[in-house]
Amino acid sequence: MYKRQFDNKLVVLLNDRPYHESGGEEVYPLSKLSHGCMPQTSGFSTSTRWLVVTGQERTESTLLDAEKRGEGKVTHKEFNSLSEYKHFVSSNVGPGKDFEASIYKCDILGTGALLGFYEKAASVLLWWLTTKEPLRQHQVYFSEDNGKFSVLHGYSRAFNSVVVVTNKGEDNSDVDATRGAPMCLAVAEAMGPELLIETFCKVVKDRKKYAPFVLEALKDAATTSFLWDVANYVKSHGEDERLVFYNAWISHPKMLELAQSHHGNPEIENDLQDLAARFGCISHTKDLVTWWFPWRRSKFALRKQLVSKVDVLVSVWCLAKNRPEVETKRLELKAKIKNHITAARGKILLGAHQRWRKSMMHFHSSSNEEKYGTTTTSSRLMEADGHKVHGEGEEVTKCTRRIRKPKNAVVDMDSGERRCVL
């Protein structure tokens, strides 16, 4: 019950130094969270947000191991056939269902796979699962000895709640690393939508009390949060509930109050225009309208929906009369991102796939070394596919250390070998 006291709170966990237990053993604080930080296994609410501050070598990749962290919290089910299992999954996924809020381990007997084709059957099953639950991690285990399949429905990136900030310096004496713009950005990125909006409104109204980088960090955090929203929205084929931060920006009372009061205050008006222009630049992403197939129906429809949603946001923020100014700022940002892509060639491998949103993410995150330096980096513990500076399976930056998400995998239970990774 004590975990409910952390609802709507941002928890900062200092994991850069160990402490000594009674037996003299060195223990890092993060290891004491036996079920991790993810709301699907930790017991904490989805409104509880985490900022884990680590040293250069203290990234706990096991926090992404749903089976290990979910010990005692994994729901086990057994099915007599593959068709029975698929019917169970199909009937429990989709908008309004809470299936992806829990971790499931499903054993399937009598799969009917032909001898020697278990690996292929497991790969096909994994592909089917990624179409049904595109935001979830899956691992399919198979055994040729008994013809048994086991499927782990792991963490869903829709429940991201942890940001890890890494201090690459030798100590914590660097003021910029501990109290400067990079740490301010990390704190802002770790905030939930309500807390981020309330902080943004407070800083905008009393900007003279804060350093200039505070407001800029909040804007960058809002931009990257909307990028995560768009990534989940596109991956889930247009489910509105995935736009968590957008829905908060458009309906939060504090934001509506600020929007009503910005008339006659050019500074507040400029800040709202700047934020609207960033959202507009994301919604006009070129990734959804490719040059070789510009009229691809599904992607084009998603892009059109995103553009219309940002237009509604502009109206709600009372910026309808300022649309020309917002559009000018959007085009200026578009030119900056284009120049950023050009300048990054040979230094950062952004890749052709979703290059535009990758560049937007890189430009507004701690990976932008010109803006936030090289001492401190921050990233979400479980990141969206294709929206990182590096690829899904390999590191492609020369100096940026990021945290990768466990891949969907097919595993041979008899040998433990991973036969196929998607």
Description:
The chain is 42% helix and 15% strand. By secondary structure, the chain is of the alpha/beta class. The chain folds into two domains: 74-156 and 406-421, no CATH class; 177-375, no CATH class. The protein has a six-stranded mixed β-sheet with strand order 5-6-8-7-11-12. Helix 6 (181-190) crosses helix 8 (212-235), helix 7 runs antiparallel to helix 8 and helix 11 packs antiparallel against helix 12. The radius of gyration is 23 Å and the shape is globular.
- Low-confidence parts: 384-406
Largest sheet: 6 strands, mixed
Enumerate the strands of the largest sheet in spatial order, edge to edge or round the barrel.
5-6-8-7-11-12
> How much of the residues is beta strand, in percent?
15-25%
Distance between the termini: 39 Å
Domains, number:
2
Fraction of helical residues:
40-55%
Number of strands: 12
**Judging from the principal axes of the Cα atoms, what is the shape?**
globular
What is the residue-averaged pLDDT? Answer: 79
The total count of helices amounts to 15
Helix/strand/pairing category:
alpha/beta
Q: SSE order in H/E notation?
A: EEEHEHEHEHEEEHHHHHHHHHHHEEE
Topology overview:
Layout: E1 10-15, E2 19-20, E3 26-27, H1 39-42, E4 49-54, H2 66-69, E5 74-79, H3 82-92, E6 103-108, H4 118-132, E7 136-143, E8 148-156, E9 162-167, H5 175-179, H6 181-190, H7 193-205, H8 212-235, H9 244-251, H10 253-261, H11 266-283, H12 297-316, H13 323-344, H14 355-363, H15 369-372, E10 376-380, E11 409-412, E12 418-421
Parallel strand pairs: 1-4, 4-9, 5-6, 7-11
Antiparallel strand pairs: 2-3, 6-8, 7-8, 9-10, 11-12
Helix pairs in contact: 6-8, 7-8, 8-11, 11-12, 11-13, 13-14
